[in-house]
TrEMBL record:
The chain crosses the membrane at residues 6-23. The keyword Membrane applies. This is Transposase IS4-like domain-containing protein. Keywords: Membrane, Transmembrane, Transmembrane helix. The lineage of its organism: Bacteria, Bacillati, Bacillota, Clostridia, Eubacteriales.
Amino acid sequence: NDDRILAHFLTCFLALQIFKIFLAKVKSSLPKNSAPISPKCAISQLKKMSLHIIPNEGYTPNYTRTDITDAFHKAFYFRTDFKGITVGDLRKIINLTRKGI
C-alpha cells in the first residue's frame, strides 16, 4: 500500500512539473503586449482546440485563433490553425512531440 501511495505522489508531482515547464514555455512565447496567462486559462484553451475530421482528406481546425493558441504553436513548433492538415502531417506533428523537438 505504501508503494501505491508513493507511486501516486510521484505521478502527481511529475505531472505538475511538466505542466509548469509547459506553462513557462507558452508564457515566453506570448507577445510582449498580451495579458498574462493563468494555468486555468491555458487548460481551458487547450480543451477548446479541436480538429474536425474530413474523410479521405485529413483534419481542419475547429477553434478560434487567439494569442494563447498562437503561443502554443510558436512554443511547440506546430501549426494547426491556418489550413487543413493531412493525416501524414498530423502524424509528423505527433512524432515531433514524442521526440521532444
